[in-house]
Amino acid sequence: MNLKLRTISRAEHLSFIRSRSAASHMQVPSWGELKSEWRSESIGWIDDSGKVVGAALVLYRQLPKLKRYLAYLPEGPVIDWFDPELERRWLRPMLGHLKAQGAFSVKMGPPVVIRRWEASTIKEAIAGGAAERLREVEADWQEPRSFELADGLRRAGWLQSEDGGAGFGDVQPRYVFQVPLAGRSLDDVHRGLNQLWRRNIKKADKSNVQVVQGGYEDLALFHRLYVVTAARDHFTPRPLAYFQRMWTALTAEDPNRMRLYLAYHDGEPLAATTMLTVGEHVWYSYGASADHKREVKPSNAIQWRMIRDAHALGASVYDLRGISDTLVPGEHLFGLIQFKVGTGGQAAEYLGEWDFPLNKLLHKALDLYLTRR
To answer: Where are the annotated coiled coils located (predicted)?
Structure first.
């Protein structure tokens, strides 16, 4: 079967996404509206019958003073990654199309999980001190076709992004933490939480922490807590307008695409989170919390509410997004994996991001610029 690649309409793209059990929230048409500093395009692979059998959201970032672009497919494209003719049928036509659009370099993030570690395996590795990195621990599950896939990409000229030694070298996280929900009751999920998580949820309940679902008008409240969190954790916060744009774009596409949750104690907001949904996949997207009253455990309460709501939506997975792969207590970012392991889920490693330099000179210049920055 031969495939043709062309620009597809928003309706065609959304119809394809809805036909699948899940896809990344960064591969839905509305995500392009959120990234206002990029130009976006929906592309599709069409079979002989005219059916869209693969799709991608492409973000184009223009070079200053030049009509040349970095083409970025975050956590995409959504295609058959294990097709034996992946390069000829899927990737080569994509590169040709993007080059014709003015791209000098292409960055993609295959949504392929290559390894998984159970929470119990990770806890044992941390306690035993036998490994400093998650990658050094024997995985509980491995995708046997991933090695052949990676080798095929290299042979075709794709370059794998460096992971920075902690899983955060890619633009999107290579390591994430996920709680499986498919085939499990809420009681099963609750029993999977570690003792500290269950105790903290109970403490929040006894302290009368109230978790409610908010709306657009509550984004300003979320943002105030988010700015406090940014100062505490030493990162640069996004402006309120970014979250307002996100809400407007995503909920217009699907009312359940984005949700906002707020945790109150004695009428005071202490924590807030955003949740994203595409098909059966639910993500914890952004989190924020106050510096005080942490003893009433609002963050555990809000996470448990989101897990329960994800389960009620029929989600097969609740995704807590990025973790570092460090297993060394006290090391920077160790707290990420320590907090999320308590949910009793699994750490997952993705194939990572890959670059294809269509113009090697411009690609190298961009590389140097990003390295210096």
So the answer is: none
Query: Is the Cβ–Cβ distance between 289 and 229 less than 8 Å?
Result: yes
Helix or strand holding residue 176 (H, E): strand 175-180
CA-wise closest residue to 117 among 353, 366, 347: 347
**Residues ≥6 apart with Cβ < 8 Å to 355:** 105, 106, 107, 158, 159, 160, 161, 363
If asked whether residues 79 and 206 sit together in one domain, one would say no
pLDDT-derived band at 370, boundaries 50, 70, 90: low
Report the C-alpha gap between 63 and 51 in whole angstroms: 35
Range(s) of the domain holding residue 194: 113-143+163-350
0.85 surpassed by pTM:
yes
Smallest Cα–Cα separation from 75: which of 115, 38, 22?
22
Structure confidence by residue, pLDDT tens digits, 93-139: 999 999 999 999 999 999 999 999 999 999 999 998 889 999 999 99
